[in-house]
Amino acid sequence: MESNRKKDPELADFLRNSIQKSGLTYEKVAEQLNISVRTVGYYCSGERKPGQKTLLRFVRTMNIQAKDIPF
User: Fold this and answer.
1) I want to staple 26 with a disulfide (CB 3.0 to 4.6 A). Which of 7, 11, 40, 56 is the partner?
2) 50 belongs to a structural domain
3) Is residue 68 in a domain?
4) Is 17 helix (H, G, I), strand (E, B) or coil?
């Protein structure tokens, strides 16, 4: 059965790399974003895309500068 969810590998790479560079665990990121660890994993694997509000909270949590966002 094929999923209707949109996938974005570039976004997934960005999220995964940002977390790795921060030194935080998926658990800590999930806690700070008030989402489940499984959801963080889905975002980082590209299986799901975060909503705009979650993505904005992620960028703020990771202290990412606008110039560093690749999209």
Assistant:
1) 40
2) yes
3) no
4) helix
